[in-house]
């Protein structure tokens, strides 16, 4: 066969199989467009020079988008090849050799991937400009312009290489599918039934164990760091448990329905249950995949929107004033020196003013910050109770300890609280750490009063915040809960007592911040709310953008798998339904039977994904503490809204794909 004839075959086959090729090309093009966009953003000079942490987030996104795109495209190609077994067998009967069929497949896929490449590059560049502006708006940078997103030759090359890699994989898989099989074997594949599957009780038990273990981890895990370590373990257990239960428990349920003779031997139930039972082994993998992808869309979208929705609270809790200066000098336990440093900072703040500028909401703060461990009911410095201690690792909570004086607390938060000797105020960014308030500090028990959480929300680990009566008490905490020396990490010293001043400025001139910076020296650190806001929006806004992209990939994958599952089932069922018509079954009954099967296939994965998402919400909420999300009610509202919106989207997918199924079956 010469190339000209092979090209004619390829073009004819593309037109004949457009019902399955067009969705494949469009969905693959959409996913690879996102890959091109992420690669372009990674190479973009504006992103690289204006943002510090964003390139790291985008780099993660390139890897994740590339991985899932590769999986979904290769997975979709499996349905394309399976659907065309009869066609390849016919080529063999007509006298074509395997090498001729390979050449035709190569040309078909070359044309398809050439179109996909064009869609990916052109579509990625056009929509990339809009996404570039959206990204910068999300992270709070309104200075970005469309001209700041030029065409990236490097991103084009990376995308092209990635597409070639996917093409090679797809072609190899296609060749393996027809290699070593005769035309009769290929034809038999088209009509080969699964046979009645076995119940697989052992697999069902394993599935329940895996799913239960994953659910228990999600429910009982407390703490941000523990959640970070166990989340992926729990997710893997739930994923495997989902696949095992769909492959086994669904068969068990269908067989139980079959044993119910009164219910089974009714025209509608007989056809529906029998059809599902004989093909459930193949259906199970697809249904489980859809369930996992749907849960991925819901969890990813709700988590990223919760992160972005809590940014202002994170900024407010981290820095309540526009400007803050902090002494960087180690002051030790010298009360006089600490007081002198407070006066020095106050003078620096006043010298920054010019003209009619005035300081408002001023505060002075004495505070400390160190790493500690909670052993049962006592907060200790790690060096006090070392590895030789009899305490179990499970009873140890590693956390931060923040402390400040009462006058600092009252000044910052506008309170008028009073404390007696032996009393302290206590709060934490983890409710679990406040379940037992009979806690020892400094090796003794204080009378503890619980207050609202004031721990900065950008602190990505569990922490206690202690308010002590005066500076002398803060020095005692500093001497008990020590820190490592900067020069010699094997030695310890009292924790640094930070002296800070924070304020707002009324009638502020445009050059105020630059004047303030000139007044600060190397031993005074200047923090501004504007810079903090920029950094937080850049990092968390980048995660929101990444979440949207990942959710889009999952959604496209869900649509693609669902569509091809319907197409595959439609062609398999068409022959069976034609037989039903010939034996005299009415069209109305056939339609009702297919409808019940479609409903089973569609809404079971949706229900399972909802259950997975709700169970995962607790451990996901714990993880969101790393990003300052500490209100479960707000997160619950967001996940509820996402579930409702996704249910509507999923119903639209159901209507579109089920219509395609009915058209195929009724032909």
From TrEMBL:
The chain crosses the membrane at residues 20-42, 54-76, 111-132, 152-178, 199-218, 230-254, 284-311, 543-564, 598-615, 635-653. Residues 60-178 form the ABC3 transporter permease C-terminal domain. GO terms for cellular component: plasma membrane. InterPro entries: ABC-4_Integral_Memb_Prot, ABC3_permease_C, ABC_permease_BceB-typ. It is found in: Cell membrane. GO terms for biological process: transmembrane transport. It is a multi-pass membrane protein. Keywords: Cell membrane, Membrane, Transmembrane, Transmembrane helix, Transport. Pfam families: FtsX (PF02687). Belongs to the ABC-4 integral membrane protein family. This is ABC transporter permease. It comes from Peptostreptococcus porci. The lineage of its organism: Bacteria, Bacillati, Bacillota, Clostridia, Peptostreptococcales.
